[in-house]
Amino acid sequence: MSNAPLTIGALAAHTRCSVPTIRYYEQIGLLPNPGRAANGHRYYSRRDLTRLGFIKRCRDFGFPIEQVRVLAQLFEDGDRACREVRDQAQLHLDAVRAKLADMRQLEASLELMVGSCDATCSAGPTRDCCILTDLTTL
Question: What does the chain look like in DSSP terms, one character per residue?
């Protein structure tokens, strides 16, 4: 790959990130505003490509925007302690585990609802459906 500047379309293609997403990342300050040519087109550097690739991978792993911002700062400042990056990853891992526990509870509740319906009312009219009754109970 050459060192020639990239258009927003080329940047999107290289990173498999949509053009609106790239613009959004610029708007919220995750990506610096690009240079512009005389014709007004945006042009991106290899550094922008690397940073966007990093941001995309963080998002692929489900890191929220504010944690991506912290990680991107740590990425740019290579002299900070690796432990800071590890701590951010641990925070996210803890959040993922909590969501998984919530999803397991949800799965168990849905399994009970479906099983109850199969056993009591699935052959009848919706007015007698225990799932609908359960869903109306606060």
Answer: --SS-B-HHHHHHHHT--HHHHHHHHHTTSSPPPEE-TTS-EEB-HHHHHHHHHHHHHHHTT--HHHHHHHHHHHH-TTS-HHHHHHHHHHHHHHHHHHHHHHHHHHHHHHHHHHHHHHHTTTS-GGG-HHHHHHH--
pTM for the predicted model, two decimal places: 0.80
Confidence band, pLDDT 50/70/90 cuts, at residue 137: confident
Residue pair 8/40 in contact by the 8 Å Cβ criterion: no
16: left (phi over 0), alpha (psi -120 to 50) or beta: left
Residue in this structure with the two tokens 């005389």, named with its chain if needed: 38
To the nearest 10°, report the CA torsion of 86, 80, 28, 48: -100
Q: What pLDDT, in 10s, does the model give residues 21-62?
A: 999 999 999 999 888 888 888 899 999 999 999 999 999 999
CA 67, CA 47: separation in Å to the nearest integer?
Answer: 20
Q: Name the token pair of 57.
A: 């991978």
